[in-house]
Structure formats: structure tokens, C-alpha cells
Amino acid sequence: MASLAVMVATVGGVGRIPVASGTFGSLVAVPFLPALAVMRVQYPLACATLVVVLVAVAIWSAGRAEEDLGGHDHSRIVIDEVAGQVIAGLFIPPSWLAVGIAFVLFRLFDIVKPFPAGLIDGKVEGGIGVVGDDLIAGVYAGLGTLLLMRFL
Question: How far apart (Å, rounded) are the C-alpha atoms in residues 152 and 146?
Fold first, then answer.
């Protein structure tokens, strides 16, 4: 079970990329965001179920992988970036411009960790601590993208 958790948490090995593994982890979700935006409107219950399952799997796998890899929020764990990027995708329209803005804002907020993301990252243990700050960054990125899209 541990190796399955590590495989999921590293998104099939994407987290093993030696440079900017979080950025590459975020990029995994990017091609799916326009479809997610359409799904959110056409099939809201299915979309919500998909996101809840993704977040639950991310929390489980990140928590287990953290134990196996050693250390809080190990750099190889990138499922949290996938989950956060998907959360950002819940707010945006189905356009590649919106996806690009959400990607950049998510990476910014994931690095800066505005309140309460930094608090979650620093104080909460296990998978919830690993994934929680990225979920907050995703909300901020999604809302920021909506705001910027109004001006473009």
C-alpha cells in the first residue's frame, strides 16, 4: 500500500523531476481544466464528486508518502499541486487564457502561501497539512483569475 501511495503522491513519478517538481505537478492538471469548467456547469454533481474524490485521494496519498519519503511536505509529493490547480479550475471559464492565468496565480500563491495557507502548511500535520495550503492557494488563484478576466 505504501508504494501505491508514493506512486499517487508523486503523480506517477512527476515529483521525481529534480527541478521545479511542484510546477511540473501543477502542469499535470492544466490540460483538464477547460473540461472541468464545462463539467462544472453541465454536470455539477459529477464535478463536485470528482473533486472531492481527488482531494481525498491526495490527502491520503500525501500523508502516507510523507511517512515513506521522510519529512513534512517532501518535494517529491506533487499530488497537492494537482489538487490545488484543480480547485483553481473550479472558478474559471473554459478558456486557455483563464487556464494560463490560473496556473501562474496558483504557482505564485503556492509559493507565497498567503493566510491561512502558511498557517496550514506550518502547523497541520499529515496529508491535510500537505494538501491544505494548496487548496487555499487554488481558491485564491481561481478567484484572482475571475477578477483578472473581468478586465481582459
Answer: 10
Predicted TM-score (pTM) of the model is 0.93
* Cβ pair 68, 6 in contact under 8 A: yes
* Backbone angle region of 71, left / alpha / beta, with phi > 0 → left and psi within -120 to 50 → alpha: left
Cell of 131: 494538501
Angle formed at CA 97 by CA 93 and CA 98, multiple of 5 degrees: 35
Is residue 133 a contact partner of residue 121, using CB atoms and an 8 Å limit? yes
Res 1: pLDDT: 52
Residue 73 zone, left/alpha/beta (φ > 0; ψ -120 to 50; rest): left
Domain ranges of the chain: 2-151
Q: What are phi and psi of 11, to 5 degrees?
A: 50, 55
